[in-house]
Structures are given as structure tokens and as C-alpha cells.
């Protein structure tokens, strides 16, 4: 059980923000911090890791105090049982894939798990390669495996898939989900990708200007109206074109682009970049598996 | 004559080697300080480190000579403890270290500032101390900067003239290095020997630089 109750002054583009995060994460849970950029998600992750210092508050992990401003406790990152995956992977350039993992190992037992982890992320063929010779997806897998070597109590993922193309992203989401269910490590993910959040997380914490506004299962957050007999898809509005007398709206749903026709009254509340739910009535879905 | 030539060359490269080793030991922490410190007076230290780039060597030599003289506070303290720095090899080492400081610090400093912050942080989150991170992660990845620093500091010390002339003079086997010897031989119209010194310096420094740049290119190629 991880409990966080911390405050921090954030310097954002809109001025100083008094962030206050209150959150508890149960063992083995996959929790996603969801929100627009600049909301303070990454800062929260970095404070849990000990890479940044909160102004006040307490961070407690399984009864072990990692930070307590009143008792003047602030464990350095080295003393915290964490695995951190950075957005830019942060692989050590002069070490091979295996050496990157071995560097993290603290004892012979952990050293023995290195090969298993390399297998788990399907990099056995590439274990002697230097990071610079790997693709983005492969680098991200190395970073993930490296973060798992020390059997951390909590795995912290800072938008780990944001730099990848959609196909690779989907594949790695599946892998991440598989690894989480196999190892059962408590995981905290920073994301602003809806598909990723829905697919991976048990719960979602919506972060808005330095505060956690809602904490609920992701589907409840993205699709609050649960009308039966309807298919609901959530998409991002890409384009709104006027084609008299109707309006054509183009949306991105997952990795597919969908076009739909609306009346101008219906389209009046939509804006480009905003989110929308597409739902259809009297619906008889046909599902065809793809190769 | 021949043995004097050899002992002068040996002294020249001994001075450069000792200076380079000392500079390497102080250069890496100093460069890290200049890159990572948020201290208010950092720019003053940065200026002092860079001063030898623009200051005439005779100015540095002159003040070192004053400091080393038994009439000064530092000099009298040293004399009491039986240390004589003016016109001695040890004095030359101190002068060379100060004078070649920017040539060691600047390449390391610029290589260090190019290392992403997350590389340091990744190592910390994997339980490694600052020292372990520096030795095992950072130094290997900035080795081309360190090698440039070593080469430049070494070559610059071999070629040093003004500071040595001021604080070392021209004592065979103690302070008479090749650049001084060239000047001395030309003064006494002994062009053949001056040429021998000059050509040797030319060839040896060319060979060192060529070797290091070739190795450096190879090791960079490995990473890319």
C-alpha cells in the first residue's frame, strides 16, 4: 500500500501552481495518472521517485516512510525501491543491452534474473547490441526490463510509449499488460493516451492543474453514460467541415479515422482537438477477426 | 651534447606527463562543478579557469615568481618547510597546471553538459551513488571529451614557454625544457641543435595527436 499526500509549488507557463496530491495505491494495482501536459503528472512521479522534493507532506510505502517534511525524512532515489522508465529511455550508451541490465543488479540472484527479463521482453537476439543500434520500441523494452531487475516495489512509467509509432505502441501496451499481470508489480503510469489508459489501468487518477480530480476505473471516466444496447466509441475530433446543409466531422478512434455527418446544431458543441463519444442505436454488431 | 639533448627531451615530456595526470585528477571534479553547481559565484570560478587562455604567460609567471619568492608570505612559509618552488621542477609543475587548466577543463565540461540529465537520474533510481554513476556511466560515455582534454593539456604543456621562462629559468635537468632550449640555442647561434629540438617536438606532438584522434574516431564509431 502506497500513500501519498504531498504539496509542491509548480512553476508552470500559467504562473505558480500550488499542487496538492492525495492518493493511495494498493499492492499490485496498475494506476494511470491521466491529464493534459503541464498538469503536474510527471512531477508527482518524480517526487515519488525522490528525483524532486515536495515542499511538504508524507510519502509512505508499505509502512516505510520515504518522505516526511515534519520528521525531515527524505530518502534519496538510491534508497527507494523503485523502477523508473523515462520518456527518453535513458539507456547507458556505452553498455550493451545485457550490461545495461547487469548494471542495475545488486546481487547474484538479481544477476541471474537478467537473462529471464531479456527473454520476457523478447530481446535475447539483441542482448549484445549497443542501445544506439536499437529501434525506439526495442530501446523502450530494454528500459522496462532494466527497471524491473531490482524487483522494485513500485514501477514508475513516465509516458514511456509516447515517442513510438501507433503500431509499436499497441504492441508494447500488450507487453506491458502481460508483464504486469505476470510479475504483479505495483505500477504508476503517466499518460495522456486514452487507449493506453483504458487498456492497461485498473484505476485512473485524473490530474488537473496539480490536483487529482477523480479516481475511478478508466471506463467510468471516459464513458460515464452507460446506456444499454448502444455501441460507444470515444474519439478525438480532428476536423469539422461544413458541407451544406450538413457538417462532416472527422474523428480519430483508436488508430482509425472515422467520418460522420451531423446537423449544424449537433456539431455546434464540438471543437477540433476535443473528445467526443460516438454512439449508435438499433445496433447489431458484426465482429470479424483480423489476421 | 647528445646526452643533454636526451635529458632535455625527457624533462619536457616528464613535465607534460605529470602536469596532465594532475590536471586529469582535478579537471574532472572541477568540470562537474562548473556544469552542475547552482552556486552564485560559479561564474567567477569559470572566469578564473579560463583566464590562462587570454592572459600573457609572462603575467602568470611573474605573479607566480613573486608568490614563490622567500620575501612573500607563501614563499617564506614554503621555505620554512624546506620547499623551494622558484627555479625548480615542482614550481614548473604548479605553473603548468594553472596554465593548462582550461585545456583540460573545457573539453570535459562541454562533453558533460551534453549528457542528458535522465542518464544520471536513471543510474540513481537503479541504486547507484553519484561516484559510481560518474565512474561507470558518465566517464565512459564522455571519454572522447576526456581524451581531448588529455591531448590538449599534454600538447599545450609541451609547447609552453613564457611561464617556464619566468619561474623556471634554464637549469639543465631541472627546468630546461625543449622550448627553452630552442630559444637558448638560437640565442647562441647554434641552429643545428635548435633544429634538432624543434623537429623532435614537431614530430612527436604530431604523432601523439594523430594517434589519439584516430583512436577517438574508432571509439566514437563503436557507439554510433
Explain this structure to me?
Chain A: GO terms for molecular function: ABC-type ferric iron transporter activity; ATP binding; ATP hydrolysis activity. The complex is a heterodimer of chains A (291) and B (224). Chain A has helices at 41-49, 97-104, 108-120, 136-148, 166-183, 194-200, 218-222, 264-267; strands spanning 2-12, 15-25, 30-34, 56-61, 64-68, 73-74, 82-85, 154-158, 186-191, 203-208, 211-216, 231-243, 246-253, 256-262, 275-280. Chain A has 291 residues and is of the alpha/beta class. Chain A has two domains: 2-222, Rossmann fold (3-Layer(aba) Sandwich); 231-280, OB fold (Dihydrolipoamide Acetyltransferase, E2P) (Beta Barrel). The longest helix of chain A is centred in the middle third of the chain and has 18 residues, at 166-183. Chain A starts with a strand and ends in an 11-residue tail after the last strand. Chain B has one domain: Orthogonal Bundle (MetI-like fold), CATH 1.10.3720. Chain B is built from eleven helices and no strands. In chain B, helix 6 (117-125) crosses helix 7 and helix 8 (143-158) packs antiparallel against helix 11. The mean pLDDT of chain B is 89. The chains are: A alpha/beta (291), B mainly alpha (224). Chains A and B meet through strand 7 of A and helix 6 and helix 7 of B.
N-to-C CA distance of chain A = 41 Å
**CATH 2nd-level architecture of the largest domain in chain A:** 3-Layer(aba) Sandwich
Determine the fraction of residues in helical runs of chain A and give it as a percent range.
25-40%
Query: Which radius of gyration of chain A do the C-alpha atoms yield?
Result: 21 Å
Residues in β-strands, percent of chain A: 25-35%
Query: Strands across the major sheet of chain A, in which order?
Result: 7-8-9-3-10-11
Q: Which chains share the greatest interface? A: A-B, 27 and 20 residues
> What is the H level of CATH, i.e. the homologous superfamily of chain B?
MetI-like
Amino acid at each position: 500500500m502506497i500513500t501519498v499526500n504531498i504539496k509542491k509549488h509548480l512553476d508552470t507557463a500559467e504562473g505558480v501552481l500550488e499542487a496538492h496530491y492525495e492518493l493511495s495505491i494498493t499492492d499490485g494495482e496498475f494506476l494511470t495518472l491521466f491529464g493534459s501536459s503541464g498538469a503536474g503528472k510527471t512531477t508527482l512521479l518524480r517526487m515519488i521517485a525522490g528525483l524532486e522534493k515536495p515542499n511538504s507532506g508524507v510519502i509512505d510505502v508499505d509502512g516505510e516512510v520515504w518522505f516526511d517534511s515534519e520528521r525531515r525524512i527524505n530518502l534519496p532515489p538510491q534508497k527507494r525501491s523503485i523502477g523508473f522508465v523515462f520518456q527518453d529511455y535513458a539507456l547507458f550508451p556505452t553498455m550493451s543491452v545485457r550490461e545495461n541490465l547487469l548494471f542495475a543488479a545488486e546481487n547474484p540472484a538479481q544477476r541471474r534474473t537478467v537473462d529471464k527479463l531479456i527473454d520476457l521482453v523478447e530481446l535475447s537476439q539483441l542482448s549484445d547490441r549497443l542501445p544506439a543500434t536499437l529501434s525506439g520500441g526495442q530501446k523502450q523494452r530494454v528500459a522496462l526490463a532494466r527497471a524491473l531487475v531490482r524487483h522494485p516495489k513500485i514501477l514508475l512509467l513516465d509516458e514511456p510509449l509516447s515517442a513510438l509509432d501507433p503500431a509499436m505502441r499497441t504492441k508494447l501496451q500488450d507487453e506491458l499488460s502481460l508483464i504486469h499481470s505476470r510479475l504483479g508489480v505495483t505500477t504508476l503510469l503517466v499518460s495522456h493516451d486514452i487507449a493506453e489508459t483504458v487498456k492497461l489501468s485498473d484505476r485512473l487518477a485524473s490530474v488537473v492543474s496539480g490536483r487529482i480530480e477523480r479516481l475511478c476505473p478508466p471506463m467510468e471516466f471516459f464513458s460515464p453514460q452507460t446506456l444499454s444496447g448502444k455501441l460507444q466509441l470515444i474519439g478525438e475530433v480532428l476536423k469539422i467541415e461544413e458541407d451544406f446543409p450538413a457538417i462532416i466531422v472527422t474523428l480519430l478512434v483508436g488508430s482509425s479515422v472515422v467520418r460522420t455527418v451531423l446537423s449544424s446544431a449537433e456539431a455546434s458543441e464540438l471543437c477540433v482537438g476535443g473528445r467526443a463519444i460516438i454512439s449508435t442505436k438499433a445496433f447489431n454488431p458484426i465482429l470479424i477477426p483480423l489476421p | 651534447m647528445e646526452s643533454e639533448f636526451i635529458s632535455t627531451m625527457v624533462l619536457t615530456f616528464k613535465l607534460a606527463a605529470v602536469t596532465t595526470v594532475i590536471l586529469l585528477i582535478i579537471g574532472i571534479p572541477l568540470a562537474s562543478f562548473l556544469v552542475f553547481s547552482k552556486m552564485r559565484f560559479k561564474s567567477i570560478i569559470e572566469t578564473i579557469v579560463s583566464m590562462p587562455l587570454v592572459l600573457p604567460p609572462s603575467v602568470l609567471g611573474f605573479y607566480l615568481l613573486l608568490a614563490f619568492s622567500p620575501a612573500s608570505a607563501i614563499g617564506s612559509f614554503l621555505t620554512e618547510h624546506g620547499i623551494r618552488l622558484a627555479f625548480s621542477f615542482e614550481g614548473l609543475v604548479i605553473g603548468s597546471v594553472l596554465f593548462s587548466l582550461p585545456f583540460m577543463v573545457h573539453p570535459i565540461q562541454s562533453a558533460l553538459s551534453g549528457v542528458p540529465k535522465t542518464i544520471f537520474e536513471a543510474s540513481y533510481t537503479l541504486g547507484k551513488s553519484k561516484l559510481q554513476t560518474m565512474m561507470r556511466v558518465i566517464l565512459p560515455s564522455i571519454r572522447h571529451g576526456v581524451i581531448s582534454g588529455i591531448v590538449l593539456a599534454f600538447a599545450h604543456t609541451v609547447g609552453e614557454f613564457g611561464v617556464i621562462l619566468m619561474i623556471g629559468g634554464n637549469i639543465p635537468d631541472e627546468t630546461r625544457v625543449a622550448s627553452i632550449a630552442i630559444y637558448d640555442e638560437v640565442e647562441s647561434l647554434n641552429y643545428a641543435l635548435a633544429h634538432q629540438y624543434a623537429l623532435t617536438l614537431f614530430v612527436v606532438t604530431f604523432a601523439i595527436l594523430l594517434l589519439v584522434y584516430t583512436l577517438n574516431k574508432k571509439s566514437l564509431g563503436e557507439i554510433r
